[in-house]
Amino acid sequence: LFPAFAPPLSPTLSPEEVAAFFKENLTAMRGVVIFGNIIGALLVPLFALIAVQMLRVVNSSPIFAYAYIIAAGIGITAFILADFAWGIALFRPDRDPQLISLLNDMAWFFLVAPVGCVFVQNLCLAGSIYLDARPDPVFPIWVAHFNIVTGLLMLPAAFSLLYKTGPLAWDGSISFTLRFSTFIVYVAVMFLVLLKVTKQQVEQEGVAA
After folding, report:
1. What residues does 5 pair with on adjacent strands?
2. What's the mean pLDDT when you consider all of the chain?
3. d(Cα 202, Cα 155) in Å, to the nearest integer?
4. Is residue 19 a contact partner of residue 93, using CB atoms and an 8 Å limit?
5. Averaged over 182-192, what is the pLDDT?
6. For tag attachment on the chain, is the N or C end more exposed, with fewer CB atoms within 10 Å?
7. Which of 72, 82, 102 is CA-nearest to residue 37?
8. CA distances in angstroms from 43 to 69, 116, 126, 174, 193, listed in the order given
9. What contacts 99, CB < 8 A, 6 or more positions away?
10. pTM as predicted
């Protein structure tokens, strides 16, 4: 279903090899672009709900929540730019292979490397949780620890800009496998956490965020 990711395209491929791959997998890759567009959109309400819950922490600065929103917006924008770079390359598969290869490089870097905002995003949520001194905090304290650990695990992917081979290349075990496995686990865990947090809010206040 996702030919460019199983295994991920190597940074060492020549422009001609990249162009040939796109032509051979044109239909499947277009499906990836459309599906990726939907995934990017679906992440918006998840991060928005986290920010809304952060604003409920009355003894924490709202700066944490606003910074979280900005960082999440930048991260999702980078994800969508990666998706569109592949879409542009696929729109005219008979382009010069150099241009298709350039768009492919852009897509991978937009997808893998912008982890700085993800790290800041996680730190802001963790900071907000640590400052919540109420007897019944909005988020349990382990969520703060979880955000710091997952942020640190994804941070090395920033170095994918420097390598074409090895674990830190965009297709490597650290920049790709660890980075995206961690992100998938993060989204799944935070989704479950938000279900519990929202349920508690309804029980305490009679209204959901």
Report:
1. 8
2. 92
3. 35
4. yes
5. 96
6. N
7. 82
8. 12, 18, 19, 23, 15
9. 89
10. 0.89
pLDDT confidence of residue 207: 64
Q: How is residue 130 written in tokens?
A: 């640590």
Q: Do the beta carbons of residue 90 and residue 29 sit within 8 Å?
A: yes
Distances (CA, A) of 57 to 46, 54, 133: 18, 6, 9
Quick: pLDDT tens for 82-101.
999 999 999 999 999 999 99
